[in-house]
Amino acid sequence: MKKVTIKEKEDLTFKKDYDLSKGIRGRFYVPKKVSTTIRIDNDMIVLFKKLATETKIGYQTLINTALREYSTKIRKKADRAG
User: Fold this and answer.
1) pTM attached to this predicted model
2) So where are the chain's domains?
């Protein structure tokens, strides 16, 4: 494992101020999620919000996980059938 020199440590420290006046906002940002409207039954929203509180995971993340698991199951079933 390489030892870090004092000079290298100084190079890695944050300065107090940076000049961001010529920066471009969002230049490297690539959204991974798409905003959409979907109608979900109230009992399902209540269930996922309750699970979110218990697990400390966002309810939308839990819904995404459930949809991914279901889609994987459906794909495997379709692969076996055809």
Assistant:
1) 0.58
2) 39-82
